[in-house]
Amino acid sequence: MSCGSPHEVDCLEILKKVYVYLDGEVDARACAEIRQHLDECGPCLQRFGLEQAVKALVARSCGNDPVPGDLRTKVMMRIQQVRVEITPFD
């Protein structure tokens, strides 16, 4: 995915990091890089908002129940598969 505007980091690279960013699992440099990109790129910011909403929905639905260890890996793999399926080829 690309919004068509030049960015220091490609849109697709930023969107690949959105979940780890939302989980607070990125270092300070990566965090600043993602924030800067989202500040500059409307389409990515919109997509980020969607990802944020999905994460909040899952959190509300699951409550405080413990998550099986491999569930996150399975979910992340499926999300990546869907992204590949819906990402247009440039």
Q: Report how far apart the termini are.
A: 8 Å
Count of domain modules: 1
Q: Which runs of at least 5 residues are low in confidence (pLDDT < 50)? A: none
* Alpha-beta content class: mainly alpha
Secondary-structure element series: HHHHH
Largest sheet, in brief, is: none
Q: Mean pLDDT, nearest integer? A: 78
The total strand number stands at 0
In short:
The chain is mostly helical and 90 residues long. It has helices spanning 11-16, 18-22, 28-40, 42-62, 71-86.
Index terms:
90 residues; mainly alpha; 5 helices; 0% strand
What can you see in these coordinates?
The protein has about 90 residues and is mainly alpha-helical. The chain has one domain (about 10-85). The protein is built from five helices and no strands. The termini are close together.
Annotate the secondary structure layout.
Layout: H1 11-16, H2 18-22, H3 28-40, H4 42-62, H5 71-86
